[in-house]
Structure prediction request, 247 residues.
Amino acid sequence: MGQRLSSGRNDNESHNILTNDIANSSGLRQFYPVLAVALEQGSDIRPGLPIELVSYIMRLADCVLLSMHSRISTANFVVCSVTSQVVSQPCLLTDPVSREMIPHLARMRLTTNSHDQGWYNYPDSGSWTWFEVALVEHDASGNLRVKVRRSIENDSSAGDINTPEIATTLLNDAQPLSWISHRNRQGSVSFIVQEGIEFGPDHEIWQHISEGDQILVRACAKYGSWKNHIDWTALKIWEWYNPVNLG
Prediction:
């Protein structure tokens, strides 16, 4: 679900977003190794630095590259709600994350071209169409499910999690590892390109991600007559540049 970001697309706004980031990342892939070598080797007036310090400096300098896990989906569809229940539909899904990749994940941002039903009755009621980013895993049957956080997951006082009392507490306390990226502009008639929040280095998503997990983007709507119209979605993920493997 979803395609890798590439410069070969020709989808108006989505094409511009992708080509700009890819072009910028291409230049950085040439610059970062030169910078890392200069820091490591030093000069006549400055001694060389250990590669661990070079890596630390480059992280402080926010040296990131667009990840191959980034995705775009040009699926055009509508999510409709007729009740107070949340209705959602997947937009795109990344490949499974490898154990080696996890320490290098730096940040992520979702961009959409979307709008709601184009009208509303109560301006103060807010926008009830939105986009979420979630961590998903495979269950014992091989089906994808949204991961959950448990408030007593690491609580040594919780006791044996296999007891009925603790198992019930875990079930009741379970919360999906899903976060709202952004909401559609209320009462928007035509498609609007909107950027969501930045899932930066300190966001909790990186604390919960583990080997084999995938990142899911889904479009949501709630309450009668609310509609989420989707033209395209793009999930851009950046990784820290790793100077250990120079070049």
Q: What stands out?
A: Residues 3-245 form one domain. The chain has one domain: 3-245. The chain is about 20% helix and 35% strand.
